[in-house]
Amino acid sequence: MFLATSARPCFRVISAEDIEVVNLERVGFNLKNFDMAIIFKDFTKDVHRIDQIPVQNLDNIKQWLATLDIKYYEGKSNLNWKPLLRQIKAGPGRCCPTCHRHASRTLVS
């Protein structure tokens, strides 16, 4: 199980099996906090965000995600997930020609 909390006094339990990838955002600006976006395998679900996580927790979170075999990425900015998920749901080749070429090679091999 994966427990996601926020600054608000509400909690949400998310199963690790439901997570496709986690994006750690605003990492590397020497800020005191970073954000985490949880992207579900079911791309029709909204991305769950946890904002303003103290940077002291970054290494522990990365280790924990690795032990759960959840892929994660770090970035210096927050991403706008709604349009990104729309492009992903549109299928290979609709988001960019490179994706289409890569998907075609993968299917042929």
Walk me through this protein's architecture.
This protein is α+β, with helices and mostly antiparallel strands and 109 residues long. The chain has a single domain (2-78), classed as Roll (PH-domain like). The protein is 29% helix and 31% strand. The protein has helices at 58-67, 81-90, 97-108; strands spanning 2-5, 11-14, 19-25, 33-40, 48-54, 71-74. The strands form 2 sheets. It has a 4-stranded mixed β-sheet, with helices on one face. The protein has a two-stranded antiparallel ribbon with strand order 1-2. Residues 97-109 have low confidence and may be disordered.
Distance between the termini: 36 Å
CATH class: Mainly Beta
* CATH topology heading: PH-domain like
* Strand line-up of the largest beta sheet: 5-4-3-6
The residue fraction in helices comes out at: 25-40%
Main beta sheet strand tally, sense and closure: 4 strands, mixed
CATH architecture classification: Roll
Q: What general form does the structure show?
A: globular
Radius of gyration: 16 Å
Index terms:
109 residues, alpha+beta, PH-domain like, four-stranded mixed beta sheet, two-stranded antiparallel sheet, 3 helices, disordered C terminus
Concise overview:
The chain is an alpha+beta fold and 109 residues long. 29% of the residues lie in helices and 31% in strands.
Structural topology:
Blueprint: E1 2-5, E2 11-14, E3 19-25, E4 33-40, E5 48-54, H1 58-67, E6 71-74, H2 81-90, H3 97-108
Parallel strand pairs: 3-6
Antiparallel strand pairs: 1-2, 3-4, 4-5
